[in-house]
Design brief:
16 helices; alpha+beta; 6-stranded mixed beta sheet; 7-stranded mixed beta sheet; single chain; about 20% strand
């Protein structure tokens, strides 16, 4: 019996992730990855959410193996600095089961503050990853009973190269070639073959489009419409560069700038930097100079790159025999490092539906398309929230970015929070429309100091003994059960 064929079009991190996952979990498929030597991977972001830990565990790859190979460091969360123009900051932590009790104290205090009580609430006090950041520790507990959630920072190019080796070991065929044209089946709703520049014809039963912004199959061949987010997210360009190595920290930095924001991402051998901005307010040359002026003299020669993008998503993700992933399917600015997560979830949804015995192909495609659309809509709402809660008015960009259309769900969450009503009920009711859970919404709305000036219903104050107990609980866990990132990464190097 002939094995069904699947071709992944495009390399980079997204393409090799798909090839690895499909080869591992759908072994009845004969997988080929077609990579164009003329199209370099974008490689923007270099950060992940906790989902990626599950992906590497699925492949059976230990951190001690892949992290040194990719220059990777641990990510306990994200610091947002100067988003309100006051040189202030807040932290977006990752949430785990050991945070449950102290986090409730944080939720209570955040509700007190938005309802009029003049108190400062530092989220780092009540979450394990907040204490880990302060102590410069890796989020890997020495006690198996403590399971933290965390992300990573990594070199995107080196990760793609690492996954390529894994994929080849799983039996994936690697082929170099450029797609000249795509032929469709007579009905025009599925891909029949790929015609390469050298005249070769490649046929397959299934295709995964990982061709980046070109979207060769999903966009160009099948003409799936692109839904832009540009009415809500104004940024459309980025300039990236590397700076020289410093002792790597355990968080991502997101720092507001005149026409957008910049990231600082620590790798083992360098710092990745990027300025995401809107070119309606600043030129690429001005953005580059603004970024360099912030970073000083440490720029690595030859590392400066300029990129353009349009935030949005394809109307459908799985059409006919084509699944779109990565930039071929969607892009939302990397403010919360969601790109890799969306790619991973698209692949996981696809594999789940391929395994499923019930339902028609059309039913499975409709369900996956709805899953991905809801996920991206939820991510977009959360990203927009960073801008529309800002009190900055010092530049044209911030004046306009803070006044964009919020959309129905975000408007309801923000209004409920601002006037002191029950936001937990709204989050529960809207749960299926959200990509982020309760701790993340509290982190941003409390962190951005978003509340009405005239609310005065704070309720009862918590006893100081309870506050101290909540703070000491996670602080003690971190002191007793975690080691420094520097020490752990050194152990990885010594063992491999």
């Amino acid at each position: 019996m002939r094995r069904k064929k699947l071709i992944v079009v495009g390399g980079g991190t997204a393409g090799w992730m798909a090839a690895c996952a499909v080869a591992k979990q759908l072994p009845y498929l004969d997988v080929t990855l077609l990579e164009s030597p003329a199209i370099p991977p974008v490689g923007v972001g270099e950060g992940s959410t906790p989902h990626f830990k599950r992906f590497m565990a699925l492949l059976g790859i230990d951190e001690s193996v892949w992290m040194p190979a990719c220059g990777a460091t641990y990510k306990n969360g994200i610091f947002f600095r100067n988003w309100n123009g006051k040189q202030d900051q807040y932290f977006h932590p990752f949430y785990c089961k050991d945070d449950v009790k102290p986090a409730e104290v944080f939720f209570y205090l955040a509700n007190q503050r938005r309802r009029g009580m003049p108190i400062d609430v530092d989220i780092c006090d009540y979450f394990i990853t907040g204490h880990l950041v302060r102590q410069h520790k890796a989020p890997v507990s020495q006690q198996k009973a403590i399971n933290t959630e965390y992300g990573y920072h990594f070199s995107a190019d080196r990760l793609a190269a690492f996954l390529k080796v894994i994929a080849l070991g799983l039996g994936v065929t690697h082929k170099l070639g450029m797609v000249d044209r795509v032929t469709l089946v007579p009905e025009g709703d599925a891909v029949a073959s790929l015609i390469l520049h050298d005249g070769q014809r490649l046929e397959a039963d299934l295709f995964i489009d990982a061709s980046g912004f070109q979207s060769i199959l999903l966009g160009k061949a099948l003409k799936v419409p692109f839904i832009p987010f540009s009415d809500q997210l104004l940024t459309n360009r980025a300039v990236t560069l590397a700076t020289k190595q410093t002792p790597p920290f355990t968080f991502t930095d997101s720092i507001a700038m005149n026409a957008g924001w910049r990231w600082r991402i620590p790798l083992q051998d360098r710092i990745g930097n990027g300025y995401v901005y809107a070119d309606a307010f600043i030129s690429p040359e001005q953005a580059e100079q603004e970024l360099i002026s912030e970073l000083g003299e440490n720029v690595v020669d030859g590392s400066i790159r300029h990129l353009s993008f349009t935030a949005g998503m394809r109307q459908k993700t799985w059409v006919g025999n084509v699944l779109g992933i990565g930039l071929a399917q969607s892009f939302v600015e990397p403010l919360e490092a969601t790109s890799l997560m969306v790619t991973q979830l698209c692949i996981e949804f696809f594999i789940h539906h391929m395994h499923s015995q019930g339902g028609t192909l059309q039913d499975k495609q409709q369900q996956l398309n709805q899953q991905v659309s809801s996920l991206l809509a939820g991510i977009k709402d959360y990203i927009v929230c960073h801008y529309v809660t800002s009190q900055r008015t010092d530049t044209q960009f911030w004046q306009q970015a803070s006044q964009v259309n919020k959309g129905r769900v975000l408007e309801e969450i923000m209004h409920t929070w601002r006037v002191g009503q029950d936001v937990d009920e709204v989050l529960h009711t809207r749960d299926k429309e959200l990509a982020y859970f309760r701790p993340s919404w509290y982190a941003i709305l409390n962190g951005m100091d978003y509340h009405a000036d005239n609310t005065a219903t704070p309720g009862d104050a918590l006893p100081m003994s309870l506050l101290d107990q909540a703070k000491r609980y996670n602080q003690h866990l971190c002191e007793e059960n975690f080691i420094s990132q520097e020490k752990l990464l050194l152990e990885f190097t010594r063992t491999h």
